[in-house]
Amino acid sequence: MEEKVKVGCSNCGATNNYPLGVSGKKVVCGRCKYSLPEPGSVLELPASQASVFFQNSKLPILVDFFSPTCGPCHMMHPVVDSFAKRRAGEIMVVRINVDENPQVASEFKVQGVPTFVILHKGYERGRTSGALPEADFALWVASKI
C-alpha cells in the first residue's frame, strides 16, 4: 500500500492525500484539479490565494511573515524550511513577503518581522515575533497546533 500524507490545496484549501514517492509527477487536487504543493514545501502565495487558503484549509497553517531586507528573517528561513519538511502532512507552511503583500500583513496586524502566526480553520491559535533557536521554534509551534 502506498504511503500518503495530507496537504492542503493552495487554490481551494481542500485537504488531499498526497502519495509519497511520486517525485516528478504532477499531483492535483481532488476538488479543483489545481496542482498540489509537495509535502514539506514552504508556499509563497499571492494575497488573493493566501486569504482563501487561510480560511479553507483543514490543516493547521504556520505563516511566516518576512521581509527580504531583514537579517533575522533570513536566519529563520532554514529553520522554517527544516520544520516544514519534518512536519509534512501535519501542518502547512506559508511564507508572506510583507513588502510585496502589505495588505495581508495589515490584516494580521504584523508590526515587525519575522512574525510567525499559527492558523487553524481560519482562526489564529498563536503568534510570536523575532528569531528563535530551532528547538524553541519547534516547541512553540507544537504547543499551538
From TrEMBL:
Taxonomic path: unclassified sequences, metagenomes, ecological metagenomes
Domain annotation Thioredoxin: ranges: 34-145
Which keywords has UniProt assigned to this entry?
Answer: Disulfide bond, Electron transport, Transport
What species does this protein belong to?
marine sediment metagenome
Q: Which InterPro entries match?
A: Thioredoxin-like_sf, Thioredoxin_CS, Thioredoxin_domain
User: What PANTHER family does this protein's entry cite?
Assistant: GEO12009P1 (PTHR45663)
Concerning PROSITE patterns, the annotation shows: THIOREDOXIN_1, THIOREDOXIN_2
Renumbered to this chain, the signal peptide range is: none
Q: Extract the GO molecular function terms from the UniProt entry.
A: protein-disulfide reductase activity
Q: Which CDD domains match?
A: TRX_family (cd02947)
User: What is the name attached to this protein's record?
Assistant: Thioredoxin domain-containing protein
